[in-house]
Amino acid sequence: MISLEGLPAVNACFNGASAVCLVLGYVFIRRGNRRVHRAFMLAALAASTLFLVGYLTYHVQVGTTRFLGEGVWRPVYFSILTSHTILAAAVVPLAAITLFRAHKGLFDQHRRVARWTLPVWLYVSVTGVLIYFMLYQWFPHHTGG
Q: Could you report the per-residue pLDDT of 94-115, keeping only the tens digit for each?
């Protein structure tokens, strides 16, 4: 069983796994291997879905986690967080449309939207890991004595 305190690290791993799967999916489609591309893109979707479940579970229980960094780190963190949040909301319909078009075999239409979906989804996944490090590793909340 994963502890509530360990959930942010697990969520960061899901984001990282999603990013790796997205890159590998791209590599394989560029090589013309649709079967492996499809497997990696579905794995990226699964990792992102598991992230979202873990993220919501954590924040329903804990609430908001405050950023404790100071100085130049505050505007850096909040710039990353703002762009991450906006693009995370945008990637959900983009990914759904991309997946739907691939599933229906509409590959020309799939490619047109995937050109937007991939960089947005990759940015959201990578910045999700970065946000984890900034909140929980580099500027952590101290508990206990």
A: 999 999 999 999 999 999 999 9
